[in-house]
Amino acid sequence: MSLDPNAALVLFSGGQDSATCLAWALSRFNRVETLGFDYGQRHRVELDVRAPLRKAMAGLTAGWAEKLGQDHVIDLSVLGQISDTALTKDAEIAMQANGLPNTFVPGRNLLFFTFAATIAYRRGIKHIVTGVCETDYSGYPDCRDDTVKAMQAALNLGMESRFVLHTPLMWIDKAKTWEMAQKLGGDRLVEMIRTGSHSCYQGKRETLHDWGYGCGTCPACELRAQGWERFRAESPLPFSAPQRT
Ligand code: ZN
Fold first, then answer.
1. Ligand 1: distance of its center to the CA of 95 in Å?
2. Distance between CA atoms of residues 241 and 94, nearest Å
3. Residue 145: DSSP 8-state
4. How many CB atoms lie within 10 A of CB 52?
5. Residue bearing the bigger pLDDT, 218 or 194
6. Cα(130) to centroid of ligand 1, in Å?
7. For residue 40, how many C-alpha atoms fall within 13 Å in the half-sphere facing its CB?
8. Which band of pLDDT confidence, cut at 50, 70 and 90, is reported for residue 136?
9. Is the predicted pLDDT of residue 102 greater than 80, yes or no?
């Protein structure tokens, strides 16, 4: 199986992290495709923001539109059916006895990586890019560096391939993720991600806060709000929202 070393598949959920990863991939690879999953997530609205955000980002920098290829969406509703979590059921978000929030969907990222590799195999894409990070508040074990490295080994053994799994955000927090977006695409990209991406677990997009749309109180909104505040306070580059025309 020959894999194109200049091609990347980005796991693009529509959130802040994966949008930053998409910009990261567009700045490095010649051909970039995206992948999303419909798994019965409560914040299914994140799937709706993907296409407009992709389109906006494609027009950001000369050459990005030509690089940005197919978008794939896989129906993983079976994951929602077999999981009993606050992300896939209408349950209160809470901490569990094992120290993990009940928004943790067991096996979710492991399945995502496996399906990503299946698509990458078919499309001849060598690089798989994901926005998982260890600094995330939740400590999801399937976002850890060891898990991703083990998945890379397992996928390459099981598919007799040489995929490379990239995690550009693994060791940085949400404030640094905004900084990375600013370096990759300037204030215009920051503004696109601020207003065009979706993080809120409740799926709310009625209110535009400083940091973007969301309910403002769920753990995903809190994390995003804190990251935005630190970014604005600490970023070496000043941010000014581009004027809308
Ligand atoms: Zn929220």
1. 16
2. 35
3. H
4. 12
5. 194
6. 22
7. 16
8. low
9. no
Separation of CA 107 and ligand 1 centre (Å): 23
Cα(120) to centroid(ligand 1), Å: 32
Q: Compute the CA torsion angle 109, 133, 139, 178 (nearest 10 deg).
A: -120
Distance 108 CA to ligand 1 centre (A): 20
State the pLDDT confidence band at 146, using cuts at 50, 70 and 90. very high
The domains found in the chain, sorted by start residue, are 4-234 (3.40.50.620)
Separation of CA 102 and ligand 1 centre (Å): 15
Contact assessment for residue 9 and residue 35, using Cβ atoms and an 8 Å cutoff: yes
Distance 216 CA to ligand 1 centre (A): 5
- Dihedral, CA of residue 140, residue 101, residue 19 and residue 39, to nearest 10: 100
Report CA(123)–ligand 1 centroid distance (Å).
35
- Going from the Cα of 39 to the center of ligand 1, the distance in angstroms, rounded, reads 19
**Model-level pTM?**
0.92
The number of beta carbons lying within 10 Å of the beta carbon of residue 234 is: 11
How sure is the predictor about 94, in pLDDT bands with cuts at 50, 70 and 90? Answer: confident
Dist CA 25 CA 9 (whole Å): 8
Contact of 76 with 37, CB cutoff 8 Å: yes
Q: What is residue 105's predicted lDDT score, i.e. its pLDDT?
A: 75
- In the reported structure, the alpha carbon of residue 118 is separated from the centroid of ligand 1 by a whole-number distance in angstroms of 32
